Structure formats: C-alpha cells, structure tokens
C-alpha cells in the first residue's frame, strides 16, 4: 500500500490564479479559424467562436499571452488597429498574415472569457518607442496621441493591460532579435523598460530568462538579468515543451519506442523542469541578498505543453499520457507556488492545442489537456502545502528513482478543506493509497477523476468525449484505489 501524508502546517505559498493562463498567436489556425472565425455559424457578432469562449471559461483561463511566441518579433501593433479593410498584412515564415484580429479585438475577446491580457512586445524588428506607444494605446487616458487613437477606434476607456513581456526567447539563436550575451539583452531591455514604464509606471514586466536554465549555453544568464534589471523586473521567464528539447527530446525516437516507453521517459523528465524551478528560485534568492532586499520576483513559464509529435500544421493530438504530463506541470506549479506565479499553456486552439475547431464549420472538441487544467482549478487561491509521497517508484534513465504517483496539495484553513492532486503514472496497475493529514482526521473525500486504460486514447471529432472528467466519491477512511493512467483531484474535508 502507498502512503501519502499532507501537512497543512508546512506552507509553500498561495496558488496564484495566473498559473491558469494560455497563449494565442498567429500561427497556423490558432487565431484565424480558431479563436476568430467569422465564416463559422458558431461565431458571435464579433467573429469569435462561441465554443472556444465557453470552453475557455470552463478552463478558468486567467491570462492570455499575445501576439507571440516567435510571431512577436515580426508583429507591429499599428498594423492591427483601425479599419480592418485598411490593415496591412504581416509577412511571417513566407506567407502574408491577416491583422483583422489586433489589439482591440484581443482585449475584447479577453474580456469575454474573463482573462487578463498579457502582451509580448516586439524586440526583434520593433523599437522601444513602439513598445511605449503600445502601452500608451492600451492604458493611456484621453489627451495623448496613442490613447486618442484608441478612443477614435471605439474604446474610450483605458484597457489597463497589466502584464507585458519584453521579447520572446531572446536568448535563443533561432529567434529574430537574438542577443548573444545577457549583457546585450540587458542594454536593450533596459531601454524598453524605461520607455514602457514612462507610458504607465504601474505595469508588470516579464523579462526573458535563459530559454531553459538547464542544458542551455549561457552560463549565469538569469543571474545577470536579475541583477542588472532588478529595479524593473517582476517576472523572469522560462519555456518548456516536454519531449521537444534537450535531455527530454523524443522527437526522433517516440515512434520507434512506442507509447509506453515514451510515457515513462517523459514522466521521468518532468523532474528536469522542477530542477529548473529550484535553480531559478536560488538565483532569485541570491540576487535579493546582493541587493539587500527581499523583492518578490516570479517565474513565468509562459509557454509549456507536451510537444514531440511534429505535425506540419502544429495540430498535435494529445493522448491520455500527454494529458497526465500536463497534470505533472500543474503539480509542479503547486509544489513551487512561492515562485511559480505565472504560466501559459501553449496554445489554445488548433496549434499544440487545448481545443480543436473545424475552421469555417461547426466541428469542435476539447483535448484532454484542457480538462486537466479545469480540474486543477480546485487549488486556485488556496495555500499550497507540503506532501510526503511514500509511493512506488520506477528506475529512470537519468533520474535513478521516479515516483509512479505524482502529488501536490493545497489547503483552505477557513473551510478546513485539503485539495490533494494525485497522478497514477502506472499504465497497467491499480494502486491503493492510504491518505493521512498531519494532526487531523478525515471526514469525507470526494472529487474528480480523469484517465483511460488505453494509453493512446484521445478525443477526436468522431469521438469528442473519449477523455472526460468523472465525479469520484469514497468514504472518510482515507484509503482509496487509483485506476491506471489516472488523475485524481480530491476534496478532503476535515473533522
């Protein structure tokens, strides 16, 4: 029998609502034919797909990153405002891209799903002045040039966009705007930050960290950024596509390996991301000591998802194993909630997607990853607490022992309720778990269950509800049996 003990007295931090973010960019059919699809009879008066709006609400999406991604250094916001008939096209990766979904449409759509807009400025072909103008367009009051343009375009009240990223993947040589050294980025980013803060000193800034702080060529990139930009920085970012890069890459082997070996390998390498959080936490701690302050600086994982199947149009199908990997992402967010304060699943529709639409038609389904995020909403605004997991392990290829049961927990002291999140990675076996709460007695256990015995199970247009969430209830004994390949989000009421 496996033993799991939750200690509500050992606090990690608040589970920040901003970890429930998502990401859209003009890549393949994410925005055009996905979020924005005027040709579909399922779209509203603004051309926004209604099923996407409703599913986004169900997922509890708290913030949305836009316009990129690798599209950001090609995007000029002026091209996406004003009369749609007069908006020019943007050339990106060899094809002209529409600008009918620009800043005003993005803000309107965010308002419809109840999410904070999160804008990534152009540090490739853009300038500090352009970034400043974009902030003024969004947040300025009447009487300034760009605020008056917004007003003329039909939005008299400021949008008050709070979250702004200074470039995308600047530390990576594939990115337009790449800087070879952190010092090169620092010089440029300081100018952008000063200009943007001049337009609105209340905004929160996300700076480019090392694309991934492990297996990346820039030694001490993050420390240099944190130190030199300390007065401006609110977040430092990281990107992680499990299965795509570095030690965890299975792009060239997953088909040969098959789904079972791939599942256990990628489950193991979620530990690599947790190591990255630990390293970045200590970098923040070190720089705080250097500046003799304790400034709150968050880690923004503003692009993440499984991504090892490389389809031509980025329409990646997610099976149940991939969905449980997203559950592991959320377990990491909860376990590291003192610093894991902003996250964005990439992307929302049709491109490495949480949901899929038939562009121009009415077909629609949600992928399993979207249901996993929805389940973890039970932890939102709760206090993340320590969990001891005495469960079974398996031998990894890099990490010597890997937990078959992946866990995290949060606690609401006022309602005396513990949320316990458990993933059973075992693809064959049930696991019996004895749950204990330190110095407390369990009254009732209920919650939700997600999973499928078939590792390649996924949702499709033909079978849109193969993967779904089920209700789960048991007695107050604290002993439960976990199904293979499953996620449980349990609400434990204390006596």
Main sheet makeup: 9 strands, mixed
The top level CATH class name of the largest domain: Alpha Beta
Head-to-tail CA distance between termini: 24 Å
How many DSSP-defined strands?
23
Shape: globular
Find the structural class using helix and strand composition: alpha/beta
Q: Tell me what portion of residues adopts beta-strand conformation.
A: 25-35%
Number of domains: 2
In terms of per-residue confidence, which ranges show pLDDT below 50 for 5 or more consecutive residues? none
Overall average residue pLDDT: 95
Give the name of the CATH architecture of the largest domain: Alpha-Beta Barrel
- Computed over alpha carbons, the radius of gyration is 22 Å
Q: Give me the CATH fold name of the largest domain.
A: TIM Barrel
Helix content: 25-40%
Per DSSP, the total helix count is 10
Strand order of the largest sheet: 21-20-23-18-17-14-1-19-22
The CATH superfamily of the largest domain turns out to be: Glycosidases
């Amino acid at each position: 029998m496996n033993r799991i003990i939750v200690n509500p007295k050992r606090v990690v931090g608040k589970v920040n609502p901003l970890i429930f973010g998502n990401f859209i960019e003009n890549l393949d059919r994410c925005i055009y034919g996905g979020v924005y699809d005027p040709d579909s009879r399922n779209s509203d008066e603004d051309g926004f797909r209604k099923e996407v709006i409703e599913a986004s609400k169900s997922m509890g999406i708290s913030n949305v990153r836009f316009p990129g991604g690798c599209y950001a250094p090609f995007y000029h916001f002026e091209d996406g405002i004003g009369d749609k008939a007069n908006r020019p096209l943007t050339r990106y990766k060899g094809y002209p891209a529409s600008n009918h979904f620009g800043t005003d449409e993005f803000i309107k759509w965010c308002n419809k799903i109840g999410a904070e807009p999160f804008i990534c400025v152009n540090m490739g072909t853009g300038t500090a002045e352009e970034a400043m103008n974009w902030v003024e367009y969004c947040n300025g009051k009447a009487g300034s040039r760009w605020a008056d343009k917004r007003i003329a375009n039909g939005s008299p009240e400021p949008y008050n966009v709070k979250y702004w990223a200074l470039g995308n993947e600047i530390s990576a040589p594939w990115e337009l705007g790449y800087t070879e050294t952190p010092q090169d980025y620092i010089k440029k980013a300081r100018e952008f930050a000063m200009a943007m803060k001049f337009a609105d000193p209340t905004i929160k800034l996300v700076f480019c960290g090392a694309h991934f702080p492990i297996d990346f060529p820039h030694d001490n990139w993050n420390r240099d950024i944190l130190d030199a930009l300390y007065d401006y920085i609110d977040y430092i970012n990281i990107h992680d596509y499990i299965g795509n890069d570095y030690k965890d890459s299975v792009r060239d082997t997953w088909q040969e390996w098959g789904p079972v070996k791939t599942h256990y390998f990628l489950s193991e390498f979620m530990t690599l991301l947790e190591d990255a959080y630990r390293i970045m936490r200590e970098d923040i701690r070190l720089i705080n000591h250097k500046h003799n302050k304790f400034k709150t600086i968050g880690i923004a994982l503003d692009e993440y998802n499984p991504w090892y199947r490389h389809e031509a149009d980025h329409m990646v199908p997610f099976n149940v194993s991939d969905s449980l990997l997203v559950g592991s992402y959320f377990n990491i967010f909860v376990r590291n909630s003192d610093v894991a304060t902003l996250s964005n699943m990439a992307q929302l529709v049709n491109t490495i997607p949480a949901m899929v639409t038939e562009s121009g038609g009415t077909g629609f389904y949600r992928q399993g990853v979207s249901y996993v995020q929805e389940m973890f909403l039970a932890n939102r605004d709760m206090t993340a607490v320590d969990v001891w997991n005495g469960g079974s392990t398996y031998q990894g290829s890099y990490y010597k022992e890997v937990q078959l049961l992946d866990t995290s927990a949060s606690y609401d002291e006022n309602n005396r309720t513990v949320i316990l999140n458990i993933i059973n990675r075992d693809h064959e076996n049930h696991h019996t778990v004895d749950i204990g709460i330190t110095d407390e007695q369990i009254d009732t256990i209920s919650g939700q269950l997600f999973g499928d015995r078939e590792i390649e199970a996924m949702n499709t247009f033909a079978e849109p509800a193969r993967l779904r969430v089920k209700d789960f209830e048991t007695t107050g004994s604290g002993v439960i049996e976990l199904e293979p390949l499953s996620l449980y989000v349990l609400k434990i009421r204390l006596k």
